[in-house]
Amino acid sequence: MKIKTKLFVGFLLIGCFIGTMGFTSIFQLQKTSEHLNLLDDNLETLKKSEKLLLHANKIQYYDEILTQSARNYAFTGDEKWEKRYFEIEPLLSEELSKALDLGNNIEKAFFTSVNDANSNLVNLELKAIESVKNGNLKNSVSILESQEYKNNKEIYQKNLMKYLENRNLEHQSIVEESTTDVDSSLELIFKDIIFGISLLGISIAITVTGFLVLGYFFSQSILKPLRKLENASQQIIDGNLDVKTEIYSKDEIGELSRSFEFMLNHLKKTTDIETQLSLQQNLRKALDESSIVSIIDKNGKIKYANDKFCKVSKYSKEELIGQRQDLLRSTKIHPPSFYADLWSTISKGKIWHGEICNTAKDGTLFWNDTTVIPFVNKDGKIFEYVSVRNDITQQKNLTQQLLHAERLGAIGELSSRMSHDIRNPLSIIQNEFELLKRKNILDEKQIERVSTSINRITHQLNDVLDYLRDTPLESQKFNLSNLLSKVLSSSEIPSGVKIKTSGDEIFMIGDENKMNIVLINLIYNAIQAVEDAGEIDVSMEKTSTEIIIKVTDSGPGITIKPLEKVFEPLITSKQKGTGLGLASVKNIITQHNGTISVKNNPTTFIIKIPQKEENDNSSNS
Length: 621
Hints:
alpha+beta, 5-stranded mixed β-sheet, 621 residues
């Protein structure tokens, strides 16, 4: 029997059973719906009776309040009773209106007579209230004591009491009848639900059993032979061409098995497939082990990435497969034209070779020496591109470091010569400036401008020379707190800058001259950061293992990213300065086996220097 015939028969049987159960369920649901409708009618009758009785009781209650409020106002003239009257009167009218809308013809006729009597009473009560407002209490009382008022009140109360008595008896009867009908309907519905649940349980059990039997049948007659074919295919991939499927059925799978064995025998006769498969596996293994490999389709989407590619890009295979190769582009290094030229080359079927900088998942850059090879199908059309890469990030970084070092060396040599050449004329300018100050030739603003300019040039020259000097430490014990005081007293601090110091007196073992350079640079850097108007906090602390110095300023913060780059030479975010001051500070702290770090909000430089014993006078170069 063919597979499609087996499937048709199996599903036909299950379908017939499910259809029968469905029609039975629909019939049962119709019966349950009838019982529910009956239950709803009974509940609606009971609800309507409850509402009408509630409206009648409220009407009686509100009428008593209105009558009492009108009489109290007529006798006392107290305005609170007038207010009470006008608060309750709309509520009474609303209850009468609801009763008229809800009742049947007989009930509407009753509530209409009550409503008419109420209208007459309200008109008389309003006249009485108006008389009180006009100061005529006697006339108001006479209206409420009039025969017309009494007649309407009698009609009102007599009809209402009669309705309430009859309605209470009628409501009790409705409650009893409705309760009996509700109990009966609920019993029928409960029986229908029990029957429906039983029917559903039987249907589920039979359906599940049927699908289990059908599934077992398929596993034996279809899936089991397919697994044999899958196993045979895997053995062929592994190089075994002598495999047998051992499938002898007369259905479509049996025909497929026989075609499979015929194809295999034909391949064994015409092609040395085993050698070709072994060669492909070895080549692929060698390529994966030696290089970074990825394959993209003609639309630029990644189809394959080996482990080395995942390691260098820091993406998993699941994150890469199906994504465009653009995911790794570094637009800061290569312009769009670079990638356009690359695609122009490989789309013509030519091999492209060059160096590419890519961006990893964490944002870091890595360089690859890359070869992109277009692969064509039997029709000569490109269907994928294979990229073979070698990681050259270290070589590129080393080259950049060497270039940077050479440039710094040349700049350093030139700066050293210029610094020495400038110092002599600067000393002459300083001396002449002092003479001019003594002769009172310059005013205060001129003196301040010239003094600031000389100090700035001197500080920048010191920055250059301090950075270029590579002298060993001359360690000795000195008072770090006194050194800070000397630095602050000798510094040109603008009037708008407030410097606060904190901490106990601290002695340390180190190079006092170099620590003097550290403090000068950090304080001068903070003064520049606050732009001559702000606050600077310098704190020093000594723990059992280290000395901690913190310099915090109220400036706008450092814009350089990442922050640690401020310690690199020639890096500065200010228009003033050489960019060498903080680099010199870091070199000196490193010589003291310490560390320096920086953070923003607020900008704070933190120095940590290990403590030394007094007999430890070793120096670091």
